[in-house]
Design goal:
- The two termini are about 30 Å apart.
- A hairpin with a 2-residue loop joins strand 8 and strand 9.
- It is globular and about 60 Å long.
- The chain has three helices and nine strands; from the N terminus they run αβββαββαββββ.
- It has about 220 residues and is of the alpha+beta class.
- A seven-stranded mixed sheet has the order 3-2-1-4-5-6-7. It has a two-stranded antiparallel ribbon with strand order 8-9.
Length: about 220
């Protein structure tokens, strides 16, 4: 049975967020656009001119599916992606349509926590261009087993910031106790030069370091 494609996903963040550049199109038009990109890429190679590109198959589901998210953290407890048009302005996305519900739930817990640490100068204060705070981003990974979904959380913290690991571990323990969706928490230290979100060194703070993740009949370790 073929999944229906005559619909459009709406999102309150779509006007500013750069995460879903094709969201304004009907889903069928998105699939056609993606097939067109493949055809265009193959057309650059004469030896591939006889290859036929099949239509792109519709996904199911098309919302609430993303189980891994690297999101930027900004002042005021904002957690999201950079805005359209450049400039590195963070768009808060509390109602994102593609993130898995467990990941959204964890970000809802983190927003007031970041706000509080920003006001109090705590270890999870968001990084600012003025040199205050240290948290640059979060990396969230959902793992599903049976009907249960749990999340591994990594705080990305700039290395030059003087971080008290004992304080970070205390905060991590409090988070695990207050948010059932969380399974484990770590910190990744970023040098501030690399464009990559995650840093090189990762330190375990509390809870699990890995989870089994099921996808159909396949099981792997997250």
């Amino acid at each position: 049975m073929t999944a229906p494609t005559d619909f459009r996903v709406t999102c309150v963040h779509a006007e500013r967020c750069g995460g879903c550049p094709l969201i304004a199109l009907d889903y069928s038009a998105q699939l056609e656009r993606k097939r067109g990109r493949v055809v265009e890429a193959l057309s650059r190679y004469p030896s591939l001119e006889l290859i036929y590109t099949d239509p792109v198959l519709a996904a199911s589901p098309v919302t609430d599916y993303r189980t891994r998210a690297k999101l930027i953290v900004s002042g005021g407890g904002q957690i999201g992606l950079f805005a359209r048009g450049g400039g590195h302005q963070v768009v808060d996305i509390p109602s994102c349509r593609v993130l898995a519900p467990a990941i959204l739930k964890v970000t809802q817990t983190l927003r007031p926590l970041f706000q509080r640490h920003e006001l109090e100068g705590g270890p999870l204060a968001p990084f600012s261009e003025q040199g205050t705070g240290g948290v640059r981003a979060v990396d969230l990974r959902e793992a599903r087993r049976g009907n249960e979904s749990r999340v591994l959380l990594t705080f990305v913290i700039r290395r030059v910031h003087d971080v008290d690991l004992a304080s970070l571990r205390n905060v991590a323990l409090e988070l695990l106790a207050s948010e059932p969706a969380l399974a484990g928490i770590a910190a990744s230290f970023h040098d501030g030069v690399s464009p990559q979100i995650l840093g090189v060194d990762t330190v375990h703070l509390a809870g699990e370091t890995a989870l089994f993740d099921e996808l159909g009949k396949s099981v792997h370790l997250a």
